[in-house]
Amino acid sequence: MESILGAGHSETQKLKYNFGFLIIPTKLRHDPAKTIHFGLFMNISFGLGCTLVVANLYYCQPLLIQLSESFSVSYSEVARIPTLIQAGYCVGLLLISPLGDIVRRRQLILLLASITICLTIGLSITRNLKVFLALSFLLGVVNVTPQILLPFAADLAPPEHRSAAVSVVQSGLMLGILLARVVAGVIGNFTSWRVVYYMAVGVQCFVLSGVYWIIPDYPAKNRDLTYFDILRSLAKYAVTEPKLIQASLINIASMACWSNFWVTLTFLLGGPPYNYSTLLIGLMGLVGMLGIFTGPFVGRIIDRLVPWYATLIATLCLLVLQSIETAAGGISIAAVVIFCFGLDAFRQAQTVSLSTAIFSISVEARSRLNAVLTLSLFIGQVMGTSVGTKVFIQHGWRAASALSMAWYGWQLVILFLRGPNCGRYTWFGYEGGLSIKKSAAAVKEAPSGNTTPGDLSPGPVSQPLPPDLPVQMESSQGRTKSETV
Q1: For 140-293, where are the E strands, in sequence order?
Q2: Could you write out the three-class secondary structure of 184-224?
Q3: pTM, entire model
Q4: Nearest-5° angle of CA 426, CA 429, CA 435?
Q5: Cα 465 to the chain's mean position, in Å?
Q6: What gap in Å lies between CA 348 and CA 354, rounded to an integer?
Q7: 373: containing domain
Q8: Once rounded to an integer, what is the mean pLDDT over residues 15-42?
Q9: Domain check: are 210 and 245 in the same one?
């Protein structure tokens, strides 16, 4: 696998072919003498790619009734489709996304996009439910391209714009989750569910074309590590990195709040006093999309702050908004609309700040760190969906909303246990002070920032970057300069 994806190629020469036969466009070939320019066009392309790829995981959800009729089975049997897709996605996060730390990511993304097209074709033409279930699971496994693009964007972006770059990609990811349900529901309402998957095939072909012409070739980062070393270090990071554990615990509770609202929103608006139709309830997703579009602007602000403070501000705003929902969500539709917009806007800001924080732990391990954070998101989604629905049904909308307020309180407790400028292996306290601006914090952490322990390989405490690879180095004054390592 590693040799196929280019982990063993010499990094001091331009690689002209992917997989040994596919020509790399000249302008996208890695040149050790030049720094890759990660501009607005490439950043938006990464975000759009995430939107179109992650949508594959959610097309099926509005189509379950049609699928049950087409395959002549019960609702309970087709209900396994989204479960298997999400299970496959978790497997892909654990087994495939960490490859981004040891192989050339352009080749990995090309391979995953090609397999996705083949699997989507199979889904669109099969007439057997068991085949559809198997293909759905496999689609989830290989549909982890967004979780490779996200740390890739963090690697390519200059340090002073990293949060803004990550926020654009993260916005694309969240947009795809909401947009897929709307598009599939509209198409499925007027025609067959197969048309949705025919469309998905065309969309994935478009993605593959974009990957070929836009994604730059980039050297593998940890060429001295094996695949099993990467998996072992993934488990190690999950239990030994205080900042990652803190971010994951916050992410679990935050995603539980998000899932709790969106899952129970149908019950809230479908019953008294609103009694809205399914169409009107679905339009609330558009309000959420408007909130997501604030992400890139918020990312620019986060670039100027220590991520801890951005997380604090976002969490406090979410708590205030949740209190409005708790007080008036079942009385005034204005409260629901305000909360719907604010939830997605500040949840996006919180996610970007958490991602920025964990990406600072280790440049060489960003794919693995992102995999752990994303797995915590899935845990929160399951928790919010199951617990939130049960509380809503048994005790009503106000109790479900109050549950989310308690989860936001939990997030603040976890955040305050560990201050903004603590050293890498400090579990509790406020070591390093309370500096707010990122540049000031960077000066204080400079001694420890260059002594990042490596993964599982011998040698220096920090894994070296590929030879002759130009990277962006941040000086103590906050300026950036291009250096050759």
Answers
A1: none
A2: HHHHHHHCCHHHHHHHHHHHHHHHHHHHHHHCCCCCCCCCC
A3: 0.74
A4: 95
A5: 24
A6: 10
A7: 225-449
A8: 81
A9: no
Token pair recorded at residue 175: 């947009």
My answer on whether 257 and 375 are in the same domain is: yes
* Length of the chain (residues): 485
Residues 50 and 171 in one domain: yes
> Given the DSSP bridges, would you call strands 480-484 and 22-23 parallel, antiparallel or unpaired?
unpaired
- How far is CA 76 from its chain centroid? 29
pLDDT of residue 62: 79
Q: Beta strands 17-18 and 22-23: pairing type? A: antiparallel
Do residues 219 and 30 touch, judged by C-beta distance below 8 A?
A: yes
Q: Which of 383, 388, 356 is nearest to 370 (CA)?
A: 356
pLDDT tens-place string over residues 328-382: 888 888 888 898 888 888 888 898 889 888 888 888 888 888 889 888 988 888 8
Rounded-to-integer distance, Cα 53 and Cα 55, Å: 5
Q: What is the CA radius of gyration of the chain?
A: 22
Q: Is 363 exposed, middle or buried (0-12, 13-18, 19+ CB in 10 A)?
A: middle
Residues 346, 318 contacting (CB under 8 angstroms): yes
Q: Are residues 285 and 434 in the same domain?
A: yes
pLDDT of residue 451: 34
Q: Residues near 450 by Cβ (< 8 Å), separated by ≥ 6? A: 462
Flag whether pLDDT at 465 surpasses 50.
no
For residues 239 and 117, membership in a common domain is answered with no
- DSSP letters for 26-83: GGGS--TTS-----HHHHHHHHHHHHHHHGGGTTTGGGHHHHHHHHT--HHHHTHHHH
- 51 vs 58: CA distance, rounded Å: 11
Same domain, residue pair 169 and 273: no
DSSP 161: G
Is there a domain that residue 20 lies in? Answer: no
pLDDT of residue 166: 84
Q: Is residue 234 located within the same domain as residue 286?
A: yes
Q: Residue 23: helix, strand or coil by DSSP?
A: strand
Q: Are 289 and 172 in contact (CB under 8 A)?
A: no
| Among 224, 249, 278, residue at a domain's last position | 224
Q: For residue 62, what is the domain's CATH number?
A: 1.20.1250.20
Q: Which two tokens stand for residue 319?
A: 């708590």
The dihedral through the CA atoms of 326, 332, 333, 339 has a sign that is: negative
Boundary (domain end) residue, out of 168, 194, 224: 224
Q: What is the DSSP string of 87-116?
A: HHHHHHHHHTGGGGGTS-HHHHHHHHHHHH
Residue 469 lies in a domain: no
Burial call 111-148: b when 16+ CB within 10 Å, e when fewer: bbbebbbebbbbbbebeebeebbbbbbbbbbbbbbbbb
